[in-house]
Predict the 3D structure of the following.
Amino acid sequence: MTTAYITHDHCEKHDLGEDHPEAPQRLGSIQNRLISGQLLDFLRWTDAQPATRDQLIATHDKAYVDSIFERSPLQDHVELDSDTFMMPHTLDAALCAAGSVVQAVDMVFDGEVNNAFCAVRPPGHHAEYDRAMGFCVFNNIAVGARHAINAYGLKRIAIIDFDVHHGNGTESIFQRDPNVLYASSYQHPFFPFSDPGESHDNIIHMPLSAGSGSQEFREIMHQQLLPQLDKYKPELVMVSAGFDAHKEDFMAQIRLKDDDYTWITDLLLDVAERHCKGRLVSVLEGGYELDALGRAVFCHLKSLMKL
Ligand SMILES: [Zn+2]
């Protein structure tokens, strides 16, 4: 199995200040764990290409995309929402984050790799059609999924989001799009306070109450998600891989362990192998406790590499 690891130095320069949990050190922590676990040499390390304006406006409002370019500061910061800021390096990082997913889709469809992981930031799943939110500027996975639809004519893409927060942005972008099935497990009630009762046929909500752990997570995935994925028969599996449901993560109160990330990755890779020749593209979302993040991503990648 060949797995691409797509990242860029720009993603480590987007720095929101010492106290912000969405910190540049997140990527360093992942890379350090991959080095100490001797996984890095076996990954196809790839520099992310920035997304083009056309790729962004295929998913986002043109005026919104233009406003992000126009507002990019030369110094200090610009506030996009109460916890989402642009610094001088944010635009380059956000372009590489969105572009990395486009590139991952191309690498998987070219047969260059079996699957891919985009180690990028800022994250994406809270960004909506025309607004930034929750640390997210562009919806990276949505930009990649739209590219897969436009470039390869896909009609069934499954996006599975196991970040501890509901991916309101991804849901709102695809909620009337039959080409995408979006399934999200998340702590509820919790930021961004989405309503699990308000839904569409192609959207699956899997709320978990605070304090839930491995058992509840595995049950919900096995009983609710798996049958629907097998019925849908995706042509591409995409993963919004947030690691903030880890029990050591301070951001929320779900209590997953390292091996739950191996378990869910094995399950999703099996789905991809059953229905779409193993094609899977995974994109980093949250995960803020640095050591737990490094270990959880290590488990995720080891599973993707079938080691
Ligand atoms: Zn999150």
Observations:
- The pocket of zinc ion is lined by residues 163-165, 242, 244, 285-286 (CB under 6 Å).
- The chain has a mean pLDDT of 97.
- DSSP finds ten helices and ten strands in the chain.
- The beta strands are 3-7, 44-47, 78-81, 84-86, 115-118, 157-161, 180-187, 203-208, 236-241, 280-284.
